[in-house]
Amino acid sequence: MIIAIHQPDYIPYPGYFYKIAQCDCFVFLDDAQYSNEGFSNWNRIKSPQGELRLKAPVQQTLGNLIQEVKTRDYLGWKQKQLKTLWMNYKRAKYFEPVYSDFESILLPEYENIADMNIAIIQLFCRKLGITKRFERSSSLGITTLKEERILDICTLLKGSVYLSGKGARVYQDSGHFLESGIELRYTDYHSIIYEQLWGEFLPDLSIIDYLFNHGYDWDSIKVQIRGRNHGS
User: Fold this and answer.
1) Pfam families, from UniProt (predicted)?
2) Which end of the chain has a smaller Cβ tally under 10 Å, C or N?
3) pLDDT over 90 for what percent of the chain?
């Protein structure tokens, strides 16, 4: 069984969903420490002026885990973000169905930002036809850290392969995985190129940019990545 693990990001980029699609079981690392440098509460979309950040204001203190961080819904940020999406994507071909889906999953109140992000990700996975087993690290009872934690999660879930992001190459030791009977693989994702609104193409925006422009067409993403990996 192929295991992949990642923090629950806010409306993440297509590569996040490709990673989910390539594994058998995806683990949301919801009890990792929250970081303002991560994507837990923001991502990028496109406007006529170029890149634009969508950010969820949060209530948190130093050392909080992602699942302990709450969004400040009393500020009305959800309604403001929906208006921002409407202003910048209302001309997109698939705006109405995707906007309706996102509105329905964003507006409810959530206990924490992990719950909200996971709900959004799982909704888009269902719409894209990506059906996988999902787990939360907080439910597994594992207290180790860093690489040891990854190994313990894979072992507990009986994974034979760990699918990692490319950025982890600098600190992961494949020998440690082999010693635990786990094969270490890295994702073969390459940034996709697709038709966008507003001029020059911007790569690796939130998945919602792709969805507004191309709908829930996952096959096109798979075909493009396969072609780039084989040099076509």
Assistant:
1) WbqC (PF08889)
2) C
3) 90
